[in-house]
Amino acid sequence: MRKLTLFLALLNTLSGYAQDGVLDPTFGNGGKVINNINNYRDQIASSIAFQKDNKIVMAGLFQNDFGRDFVTIRYNTDGSLDSTYNNDGIAITSLSNRDYGASVAIQEDGKIVVAGSTYNGNDKDIAVLRYNTDGSLDFTFNDSGIVITPIGEEDEYGTSVAIQEDGKIVVAGSTYNGYDNDFAVVRYNIDGSLDPTFNDSGIVITPIGDENESGNSISIQQDGKIVVAGSSSNGHDTGFAVVRYNIDGSLDPTFNNNGTITTSIGERSVGIGRSVAINDDGAIVVAGQYKSGAECNYAIVKYKNNGTVDSTFNKTGQIIIPFCPSCSLVYDGSIIIQSVGKIIFGGTRTNGSNFDFMLIRYNAYGVIDSSFGNNGMILTNFDNEYNFLSALNVQDDKIVAAGMTVPADMSYFHIAIARYNVVITDIKNISERFIPYDYKLQQNFPNPFNPITIIKYNLPKRTSVSLKIYNFAGQLIKTLVNEKQQMGSYIVNWNGNDEQSCSVTSGVYLCRLQTNDFVQTRKMILVR
């Protein structure tokens, strides 16, 4: 009877937990970290990736007395610099005086891949660097750890990098054809050589409209197709552009009939897609800048898997996010999708004088999620007048946002990072209809339990598997599985008294199974 009473009391307290989307006090100084590398003036974060051990890797730009260099920084989970990475947590690589690290991704073996651009003395080329886990350049990659790829005779930019399931590296960007810019996608083999199975040369150039185009963000679908988002101009206005390629580099005709789509946000306007994310159901979400006249805004557009605009998203397929009524620049916007399909947008918010990091969360239909932060929005200031968000990523129960913080006198630009706690699962939004029948996280036995329960699950194919325990506030308690597993049935025990679980108290816990294809969560009750 006592256990039943306690069980009912626990269920009655579920609504008493705070809203998710708050700064993580276990990270840096109250959830925030500022880096000043070697006391130099200019440092900017452009991209974030996570290792399997939850360490954070940031890529960006570092400017010293001689010019701009590639920089990668690795942080421990508490926000401190990781001294096992190049001795001080920071790796600076100079190829020219005009280098820029635009994007970072981490291979299955932990090696770190950074894509960007470098100056060859006449123009810019795409540059890809690969680092070992200790921060040294990986000499198994093109014998130097560095690959420089010129495409034409003028400027090329690498803006985004992704790694395929087979380990091949795909970089999206742009190239100048003598008249204007086109989308450019380059695929490399694991050793850094160009992949001849990709458009026979390893390089695909895609003109879309009549004038400038730029591929700014890349994502790879579960079926291996490559999605690149950016912008395309027709001479009157510039719109969000999305291109989908087959695995061999050809345009995918099942995507809007010809492999491309351009979406105008408004008449005589400029829309630039800066970030792309793909949902588990194949929906594609693009976020970026939108400028009409003197007014600057952000915009989000959602597409169905077939390349058409999804009109169920905010009834129009688009969301406009106000930034500033009169300005010349909107800083880059970023988009990520949580495992339950919620969309998190990251950008910069201004009240006319100060600028802050801004996060907004929407549901799959484009409605603001009021349970996130303050009525769906989080604003973060680093005690400076100007704080610009330029990178965003999510891992399990944490959101990490990065960019730069700048004082009013513009005397320096320093890297700024913030980490937020999120409730990873909203029980009411988990529906069995989103779960393929062959996957199954079976009910744990016993339930309620004390202190050990047995968790069973099935896998219909080889896939990456994450099996984790959270408390009901969304904090990670125990990682049970985080690896690739073969097809089959698995049984895992969770002991609430083990060292990592720190002898958790009575309460409601969430067991979450996630693969590349789906996520499923079940409640468990521990009664002491």
**Low-pLDDT segments, ≥5 res:** 1-18, 425-437
Q: How many helices in DSSP terms? A: 1
| Count of DSSP strands | 36
Radius of gyration: 23 Å
Q: Main beta sheet, described?
A: 5 strands, antiparallel
Question: What fraction of residues sit in β-strands?
Answer: over 45%
Mean pLDDT: 86
3D shape: globular
Sheet/helix structural class: mainly beta
Classify the helix fraction into a percent range: under 10%
Q: What is the distance, rounded to the nearest whole angstrom, between the alpha carbons of the first and last residues? A: 13 Å
Describe the structure.
This protein has 528 residues and is mainly beta. 2% of the residues lie in helices and 49% in strands. It is built from one helix and 36 strands. The strands form nine sheets. Strands 1, 2, 27, 28 and 29 form a five-stranded antiparallel β-sheet that branches. It has a four-stranded antiparallel β-sheet with strand order 3-4-5-6, with no helix packed on it. The chain has a four-stranded antiparallel β-sheet with strand order 7-8-9-10, with no helix packed on it. The relative contact order is 0.10.
